[in-house]
Specification:
alpha/beta
Length: 413
């Protein structure tokens, strides 16, 4: 029985897969199996896999007849895994030399259900280069050990959390197999990792984050459209996937309340909601063209409640409002742009509140906190228009739609 099972879902990627596999078979720690799951590729990926397997008997090939998505492809690999520990590696990434030896040393010295190690981001295009530093900061774990309920409580908290990528984490195989037993035949794509981390955290007893461990080589921008403008259609898929992940998490919690004893399930569900809608809304804010902003909000509201969406809009009001508040020169071009942006996001939030008066505003603590801080920053800066209050106003639909349309004339950064 191998110590490590390394699972790689792949689809139409004969170009980078050989480098990925080479980084694994050349590790100095040899007691491994490499499970490649071809998710019904339409190119020569499977032929490439067979050629790789001919050169190393530790490579196991599995193949889907129909394309099913990453969640199910990984589940196929997990079901076949025989190792004591499981790692997931994406098809176009690699492990640094010596990674498996280092991980084996960690689990021998500090046995844990989750071992979180670091990432070296390899930018593959100019847009990825600009994002690399921030991405590396987010993906680099803070050295610490967590136990029991604190693992889930920490991972998705508003502050002090750690990233929810499945790669660059080593998992005890029995925990991963139990987690995947709950997964449905459903596509989540970008929300796959978030969903699985929630399940694994709920079952795990010990988490260890390793300092100074940039062992996972993450090729940001390789083989994708990173840096391109987002379309409304793509944004809708993000909103749908993130909302589906939350629905599945809620179903898991509903089934496990009597089995997994903890008194904070509602708070953990709120954390998951806040992080998932944050992802959707950041895609909307950062990557959608200004001309599509109104249509984008309408799309998001098909999948997400108004209180969740408005909470994120108030987060933007808070941030721009604070920048304006602390600027020593409020007549500068940057300061005027900040207050203009704050008011645009405020207008959008107020319009949605008017259109959706029945949303769960009063029970969403995250929304309330962000709204109150946002208004306070604008008041303190003297930037709140006369007669505007933090109460959710009521107005005819025509005025609401006009406010939404007029709010995004000009660019929104």
């Amino acid at each position: 029985m191998p110590v490590f099972s390394i699972i790689i879902p792949t689809y139409n990627n004969s170009r980078y897969l050989p480098d990925c596999i080479r980084s694994l078979v050349e590790q100095d720690f040899r007691d491994i199996e490499i499970i490649i799951v071809d998710d019904a590729s339409t190119d020569d990926t499977y032929a490439t896999m067979m050629d790789l397997a001919r050169h190393d008997g530790r490579i196991i090939l599995l193949r889907h007849e129909t394309n099913s998505g990453t969640l199910i492809a990984r589940r196929t690999g997990v079901a076949a895994a025989r190792g004591s520990y499981i790692l997931f590696v994406d098809q176009d990434d690699e492990l640094a030399d010596g990674t498996l030896t280092a991980l084996h040393r960690v689990v021998m010295e500090r046995p844990a259900d989750i071992v979180h190690y670091g990432v070296r981001v390899m930018a593959s295009n100019p847009a990825a280069q600009q994002a690399a530093a921030g991405m590396m900061s987010f993906l680099t774990p803070r050295p610490r050990t967590l136990h029991g309920a604190d693992i889930l409580r920490t991972q998705f908290a508003q502050d002090g959390n750690f990233d929810w990528h499945i790669h660059h984490k080593l998992f005890a195989a029995d925990i991963v197999k139990r987690a995947y037993a709950f997964t449905p035949d459903e596509r989540l794509l970008v929300a796959d990792d978030f969903y699985l981390c929630f399940l694994i955290d709920s079952l795990a007893e010990t988490y260890v984050a390793v300092p100074d461990s940039p062992w996972y080589l993450y090729h940001l921008g390789r083989g994708d459209t990173f840096g391109r403008s987002l379309t409304v259609e793509k944004l809708e898929r993000f909103a749908q996937w993130d909302a589906a992940a939350l629905r599945l998490i809620r179903e898991f919690v509903s089934e496990q309340r009597s089995t997994i004893a903890r008194d904070d399930w509602e708070d953990r569900l709120a954390d998951a909601r806040d992080r998932l809608i944050e992802h959707t809304m950041n895609e909307w804010k950062d990557n959608l063209d200004a001309a599509d902003k109104t249509a984008g909000l309408s799309v998001i509201l098909r999948y997400w409640s108004a209180d969740a969406v408005c909470g994120e809009l108030y987060r933007y009001v808070r941030d721009y409002g604070y920048a304006y508040l602390v600027d020593t020169n409020r007549r500068s071009a940057q300061s005027l742009a900040d207050v203009k942006q704050a008011k645009r996001y405020l207008q959008a939030a107020q319009a949605i509140e008017r259109r959706h008066p029945g949303a769960d505003y009063d029970r969403n603590r995250h929304y309330i906190q962000l709204r109150d801080i946002a208004y306070q920053h604008l008041r303190d800066a003297g930037a709140l228009d006369a007669g505007v209050s933090a109460e959710r106003p009521r107005s005819p639909l025509r005025r609401i739609l006009h406010a939404l349309r007029s709010g995004w004339r000009g660019s929104v950064d």
